[in-house]
Design goal:
- This protein has 17 helices and 30 strands.
- The termini are far apart.
- The strands form six sheets. Strands 11, 12, 13, 14, 15, 16, 24, 25 and 28 form a nine-stranded mixed beta sheet that branches. It has an eight-stranded mixed beta sheet with strand order 1-6-7-8-10-9-4-5, sandwiched between helices. Strands 2-3-18-23-17 form a five-stranded mixed beta sheet, with helices on one face.
- With about 575 residues, the chain is of the alpha/beta class.
- Strand 6 and strand 7 form a beta hairpin.
- The longest helix has 17 residues.
- Bound molecules: oxalic acid (OXD) and manganese (II) ion.
Length: about 575
């Protein structure tokens, strides 16, 4: 199909190894036929096309419902280059371990070859990949999440610069499940999982792990960040990037609807991306961002007309649902948090009869997902295809913290911002396998996604800050999840988060003063706009409280965490920690 020798010989090598019955190239045409095949095989269920046109349901294997972090490896020649944040094995070891697993793995199956583009086609920001897979589910999801077209195939005729992504479903054995990254070879090998984060190799594997490695070498940043534009009543749009660990409401924030008082004034929010940002310093010296993805792979439970009406509209067509409950009566889907009326005649994500009252079992898996095209989002930014991207005014970091972190604070300067970002912590959720609710430091929300030693990654951030100088975006930390002593959330969240973003943008414009605290600049309570919001003054005070004892414990945990990076941790960050400890004395 293509004449590029490097690509052709890689595909023949994979064909010889995996021994499929046939090889099919994907250029965006003929997907209906593939969908039909998946329906026939039971890999997809066609939903009610009147209510949910173009929507399908997929149920995964029970052991294959989230990213397998313990099975994910960064394979660099030197162990230190992967760093303590990653599982490591030498490339030769993993090639030798995985080759027999791929051997003959596609016998009796079809091998699909998917050329894809991350980022707007033709943008100098964008990068190409080719995924080989034996899964129609992967092909259909990649077609939503990335850009696949004849133009992309054509681009591969004239460049050898593409990431080689090899995926096989095989037996789904947990013991032999591996998601291996070879950053020195621009390659990814994934076997025995069909879960999005493990198998849609354009997303976490390429756009974060491999891209972060490329970004360090090429002088840019690949980040686990949403990108939104906030339009003020004067029609000016300012862009913010925000990083949160998985399942902390990033998709909800990316698609937020302004509270009524803001809508009346003329505020609008535009979504550029909900998960990944690639950021470069442009000719004007500012930081500009593109979203490398073309769709959203969002957590379904909790999505409803209040929490994320835009997502609800978006996923009412052209969407693949994975591991939600099936309502057999009307052939639609249901999930916890959609409404209070679970199907009477339902089938749970496990494929068992389920009616919402028979057991404690959930209808939808807590990490059930939608895959949906960006083009259907009502608030999709008109800048999303702009090859230059959008200029970033502020970078926001956040996590899920019951205590400790206040609603919002601003870093003193860029280096302090890198400190704040590198030490952000969150309570774990269902998006990772393993215990839920454990606090862990998740630097820049990138700990599971940084393709190299995070000590070097922090140094790269500091270096970017130096290059940006006074044009650098301002850095902030937010926490929507603070609770009272009864575990009740203090902040209403969702659309109301715009109130905090407004404070952030006002700080970027230098419009309002702030309070100096040991951890950074805090809002004067009267500068958080509570118009139209019934929130007690004491609640706001509680949201903005910095409990110094808790922060002393936090500083001790940071010290231990930083030590794990040994001499790869930049000295500037040790200094920042010492300043924090000083200020807390
Ligand atoms: C995701 C994740 O799927 O972060 O976006 O797990
Ligand atoms: Mn994510």
């Amino acid at each position: 199909m293509v004449e590029n020798l490097k690509l052709k010989s890689w595909v023949s090598w994979a064909e010889n190894l995996c021994k499929p019955d046939r090889v099919v190239w994907i250029d965006g045409d003929g997907l209906d036929k593939l969908r039909d095949e998946a329906l026939e095989k039971g890999e997809l269920i066609k939903l009610n096309q009147e209510v949910l046109p173009g929507c399908y349901l997929h149920r995964s294997a029970l052991n294959d419902v989230a990213r397998s972090e313990d099975k994910t490896f960064i394979c660099t020649t030197n162990k230190e280059d992967a760093g303590p944040n990653n599982n490591w094995q030498a490339p030769d070891t993993m090639y030798a371990r995985l080759t027999p697993l791929f051997e003959g793995s596609m016998k009796g199956r079809t091998m699909y070859v998917i050329p894809f583009c991350m980022g707007p086609v033709g943008s100098p920001f964008s990068k190409l990949g080719v995924e080989i897979t034996d899964s129609i589910y992967v092909v259909l999801n990649m077609n939503i999440m990335t850009r696949i077209s004849k133009d992309v195939v054509k681009m591969l005729e004239s460049t050898d610069d593409f990431v080689k992504c090899l995926h096989a479903t095989s037996t789904l054995s947990l013991d032999d499940r591996f998601i291996c990254h070879f950053p020195e070879d621009n390659a990814i090998w994934s076997i025995n999982s069909g879960y999005g984060g493990n198998a849609l190799l354009g997303k976490k594997c390429f756009a974060l792990r491999i891209a972060s490695y490329q970004a360090k070498h090429e002088g840019w940043l690949a980040e686990h960040m949403l990108i939104i534009g906030i339009e003020n009543p004067q029609g000016e749009v300012r862009y913010i990037c925000a990083a949160f660990p998985s399942a902390c409401g990033k998709t909800n924030l990316a698609m937020l609807i302004p509270p009524e008082v803001y809508q009346k004034k003329g505020y609008k929010v535009w979504c550029v991306g909900d998960d990944i940002a690639w950021l470069r310093i442009a000719e004007d010296g500012r930081l500009w961002a593109i979203n490398p993805e073309n769709g959203y792979f969002g957590v379904v439970p909790g999505t409803n007309a209040l929490t994320n009406p835009n997502a609800l509209k978006t996923i009412s067509k052209d969407t693949i649902f994975t591991n939600v409950a099936h309502n057999v009566d009307d052939n639609t889907v249901w999930w916890e948090g959609l409404n209070n009326t679970p199907p009477k005649n339902g089938i749970s994500w496990k494929g068992e009869k389920w009616d919402g009252t028979t057991s404690d079992e959930k209808g939808a898996h807590p990490n059930s997902r939608f895959t949906t095209p960006a083009k259907n989002l009502p608030i999709l930014s008109p800048e999303v295809e702009n090859p230059k991207g959008v200029p970033i005014s502020a970078i926001v970091f956040g996590g899920r913290r019951a205590k400790t972190a206040p609603l919002v604070y601003q870093a003193r300067d860029f280096n302090h911002g890198v400190f704040v970002a590198s030490t952000m912590a969150s309570e774990t959720t269902a998006a990772q396998t393993g215990a839920v609710g454990v606090t862990r430091i998740d630097s820049m929300a990138m700990k599971p996604f940084c393709g190299y030693n995070m000590g070097d990654y922090f140094a790269h951030w500091l270096n970017m800050g130096e290059k940006l100088g006074d044009k650098a975006p301002k850095i902030f930390n937010v926490n929507w999840f603070r609770t009272d002593d009864n575990g009740k959330f203090l902040w209403p969240g969702y659309g109301e988060n715009l109130r905090v973003l407004e404070w952030i943008l006002a700080r970027c414009e230098g419009e309002i003063p702030a309070v100096d605290s040991p951890i950074g600049f805090m809002p004067n309570p009267e500068d958080v706009n509570t118009d139209g919001l019934s929130i007690a003054k004491e609640t706001l005070d509680a949201l903005l409280l910095v409990d110094e004892d808790l922060w002393k414990t936090e500083a001790a945990a940071i010290r231990d965490y930083y030590k794990s990076y040994g001499d790869r941790l930049p000295k500037a960050l040790w200094h920042e920690l010492e300043h924090l400890e000083e200020r807390l004395k």
